[in-house]
User: Fold these one by one.
Assistant:
Number 1:
Amino acid sequence: MRLRRTKVLAGLLVLAVALAACGDGGDGAGDAAAADCEVGGVDGDLALYNWSDYMDPELIEAFEEEFGVTVTEDFYPSNEELFARVEAGGAQYDVIVPSDYMVDIMIQEDLLLAMDFDLIPNAVNLDDDFTSPPYDPDLEFSVPYQWGTTGLGVDLGVVGDAEASWALLFDADVAGELTGRVSILDDPREAMAAALFWLGYDPNSTDEDQLEEAADVIAASRDWTAAFTSDQYSDLLLGGETVVAHGYSGNFLDNFGDDENYAYLIPDEGAVIWTDNLAILATSASPCTAHTFVDFILDAENGAQLTNWTFYASPNAAATAFIDPEVLENPAIYPDEETRDNLFFLEDTGDAEILFTDLFTRAKS
Amino acid sequence: MAATVDPPRTQTPTPASAPDEPGLERAAEQAESRRGFLIGLPSLLYLVVLFALPLVIVVVYSFATRSRTGRTILADWNLSSYARLFDPLVLEIGLRSLWLALLTTVISLVVGYPFAYYLATRSPRVRGVLLVLVMIPFWSNFLIRTYAWRVILGRDGPFVRFLEPILGTEGQLLFTPFAVVVGLVYGYLPFMILPLYATLERLDFSLVEAARDLHATGWQAFWRVTWPLSRPGVVAGSILVFIPSFGAYVTPEILGGGRTTMIGSYVVRQFLSARDWPFGSALSVAILAVMLVAAVVYFRTRDREA
């Protein structure tokens, strides 16, 4: 009797393993790119996997109407979650919106479809600054969607006309005066990049001594840093708990609204620029529709509509003419040339990622 | 909670003394066992699919390798993730979690025991009201209640204001280990009170009276009668508080402000930022081992007392 029960248990286990295996390797289709696809063609409905609040619903409706397909949109909160979901293979999406370094990783993992730019004539609209990014130098697998920077949100009532500098986070004479009222991103790469900028180093440095030095800077700043947080820095700033917050441009601008007590600063020592990008999954079931969608977003007027809705900058040069002046003239969204020359992408550092994570974890507690 | 159901042990005559109808006897026994198995099947399936299988995956992953891009390579099986568990950073985080969890458990016990005692010695009507009061917090979301502590402990909150003479104007409570312990005690106190109450309520207080009659002082009666008799509740409550405190993630994240890294947050970081699933899995296995030890202590104590 006991033997039999064990057998049934074993059977269940085998069954479950088999089920799990099925879910894993189901779809190999779609790799054959849209062979008989034309510009503006469709070959099925579109499944979009995107960050939340990152796509104007009216654009989706317009696309559905123009091309007679249905678009479903799902959301993810982080690049890592996107990666995990896509790598597991269970999710059937066509177009995704990974950030720069994640594009790099996904290319290395063969998860993305090489785009056929004959099907994306609107690609000529892209700003020259974005046609050879370090993570996809020839734009073979991705097309920039929106871009922004990582800098400092400040409470002008307390900080006043402080210089735009990482000193607001790290200098004992500046930040030290703001004990318990500073927050730093709880992200190893972003926080370490800020410290590396402050020290005058490359934010993508893998030099162990430089990274140790940066970690020491963060450790020293613990005396006045209230919190390390990646999702509550705006709340803490607007709630008066903090007066200087390290965070992402779009999030601050979205939360500040018209409130003139707050400002977003891009530090003079240099800052991180990031892009989010449209990419088509290698497993896409409707690669033709996916190309058409990418082309649709790269249209000048559609690109402008997107930026007017998200408040993030557009990599679409042709769209500039249609973007609201208040967005274009906001230096926090569209920094001047001098500032732009001082913006750097975070690049994947491979095995050094573990060093970044460990040094940062040690530094902050 | 333990209404002892007598197992149907009617068919226990030894085979030698009851050879009348061995076939029927065995058939009935088998039918009984089959029925039991079928009734248990849903929970068995649940455990296998949602617990045992994921656990196997975690264990398997913990021996795998991280690729340069952070993918998990299910080959080159090795122990390097386990070797990293002895890194000073990991040990420090582990010890901090252990310390905070123990502190939470002790504070919960010190606060919870008198309350449970009070609760158990009230009239049934008052008891009902007080029990409901203990449960009421569960009716609202744990996350929301933890966020509420952010306001209470915040810069303009009552605590900082009240303690200003001691802490000074730059005093900070929020985002300190203190805030984390407050949040943990708050969150898990009911798990201490309820099992304590269950034991104390069943306690035969005439034994205490007998002790007093025999000239024991109040303290003596407590230490020699009440406390030993309530030990099962103390152990159960302590385990129920210790285990979730040790692996806590939400509370240290929200009230610790990322400055009091506990092991739960460190595991999450392996999956979401270092993309090192093998190491994250090895950490999970290590946590599991600690909890297993705690659970074994619990069951052994309970069995000994029973």
Number 2:
Amino acid sequence: MHLSAFDRLFWATGFVGQVILITVLFASGRAKSFPIFTLMVADSLVTTFGMYFVYRYGSRRLTYDTYWIMATVEMLLQLAVVFEISSHLFAPLGRWAPDAKRSFIRLVGISVLVDIVLTALCSPVKSSLVQTVVERGTFFSSALMTELFVGLVVLSATGGFPWKTHVGRIALGLGAYSFIGMLNDVSTSWLGWTHQASTIRSLHEIRVAAYLITLTYWIVGLWHEAPEPRTLSEPMRAQIFGLNRQLEYDLGRIRGWRKI
Amino acid sequence: MSNIYFTIAVVFFLAALGIILLRYWKRVRQAANSDWEQLLSRLEPVNRENIARIAEDALQDDSSAYTELDGPAMSSLLGGLEGLEILERNCQVLIDLAAYVQRWYPEAVVVAEQLRMNARELEWHVARLKGAAQTGNLQASFADYAQRAAVIYYGMTQNVLELYARTTLPGVTDLQAAL
């Protein structure tokens, strides 16, 4: 299939950006803290590399099949990244806080239900079954990611979970890109593939540009170190642990209080 | 035609998500960027003596001591449902204060998490009280829930004050006055 000079430039820029991001993740040691996010970036890198050749030299059927396999894997990885972000946010003591766990399960359930309803309403001005499936699938994915991002912000604000520097940057990048993707899908669905080809192409370019901006944001944000924490002295550490033991004792008494 | 329904639904959906996101993101950023003085200024004054009276009454080992306070008396001491809502808002500030210590002293994460859990428990009690108020059972419910909420609040303020005193952060005197 034909690729314009602009397409090739976008493709090459995305590939270089993904290589830089992978390098940053390993060089800064953040690949160890965010293994699923690193895997998602690596998957995008392989997809970008592979899809270029499939799109250029492969048949239309091969391109469609490969695109869908890679898009499904990417969506599953994005959901896994949401879980990874949530684990950093809602497990300050290494295990999920009980209130956060319940809220998170509710959030995922409600998001999926709302998404199914919205996707069922989506009936693109289609020219083929393939395009309908593509539009509905990408809309479902970007809408779900947007909802989950907003949900995480709400849960962290109401539950009192502070955002750590790099977790916040990964989540913000993913959330903003998903939001733009959702706007893009709605516009594409409304215009139709065959009727406003040039407009849809412009929308696609906006989406690619948004992805490149997200990549740049991640590269810069994950390269910089988080603010340096201060260290507690030994006497202070002992006092704080003692204080916590006292608090647990008080709570035990309160919970055992017969009037409650 | 169905595209119009889809577009309208998505526009409303996106607008709702946008409003929710802006509201809560502002809250997240406000908590993250606040300094010590800004956090303190968010605290609303409460009658600390009344809170201490209810809480200490409940914590006494002698079970006969806390029977002196009935629902209406406790409601009056706390300032009614409105008084409990002030405690709820102050709990959110206490969480932010604990998060402030957590940000600069990650070792204090266990205490901060305990305080956060207590505040969520208090919010739950206030929610139950609101439900009781809506069904006209506030006076009957008040003694059970309000006393427990006061105990938790009192315990939290004591622990936060101790934490700040021990980590030698500025403003402990200001905090004691506000709480």
Number 3:
Amino acid sequence: MTIGILGKKLKMTQIFKEDGEVIPVTLIEFKEGYVVDLKTPERDGYTALKVGFEEVSEKKLTKPQLGYLKKRNLPPLKILKEFRVDNEEINNYKIGDKITIDIFKEGELVDVTGKSIGKGFQGVVKRHGFHGGPATHGSMSHRAPGSIGSTTPQRVPKGRRMAGHMGNETVTIQNLQIVKILKDEKILMIKGSVPGPSNAYLIIKKAKKVKNG
Amino acid sequence: MTLKKVEELEEKLKPQKEIPEFWPGDEIAVHIKIKEGEKERIQVFTGTCIARRGKGIRETFTVRKISYGEGVERIFPLYSPNIVKIEVLKTRERNRLAPRAKMYYLRNKNR
């Protein structure tokens, strides 16, 4: 139950620790947001914060979207996201509040959610890491999945791994470390890689399962 | 954020270090900080730079030398904080080597 912030993946690079150790980092441009709406159990059946990110020109939004935000005296915001929070925690927020980067500090662990790069229709070797068949010695099944079941039961079991669409799905990477926060440049440095291509939107939340308690 | 701004940012993230101009073929001396337990000392690795690869903060260079008849190569990150100083002892022309971006042919010549 935690709120997060929106980010835009820029690129990967590396930085040096003082002792010369190299840390691979992803540069993420973070976007600070506004509380757009409070979802309450009485009205909506659950508790959540609706937060809007990324200010854009009015032209980029439809009239209903603009009206919705104008009613709340908010600037035109491109992306609206909901974060589930506790029943008590919701009282700390009101519509129009700013969600800033101050919810994170350097060295903290976070979970990063994004949409992975689409790979199209892929075979089992790439999609599930099957080994494939022999390449030579008269073999004619190079990248085939092999047997997909026995004679009984006379059907293919559900969940059998097969060829199909790969990537372009929501992926969360847990327990990534924030190496540095550059407030002036609005840049977050996160150790390791994150899902998706450059310029993709990411949701950064506090780590759900923090290591070592 | 535009690509150009990202490049500018990367430039800013680079450690501000004085790095002399040197190219593959130059004979250089690399002064490296070495930590042994609590103590810190400087070691000098002298040899021929045979390659530079990568760009920006990720750039590395390879130094080759012959140590007791055995060829030894070390790859250093150019912007590593452990590199105290890089000295150019001899340029490529004075080393009488062929102009190559990658001087890998030296491995077969045993120099």
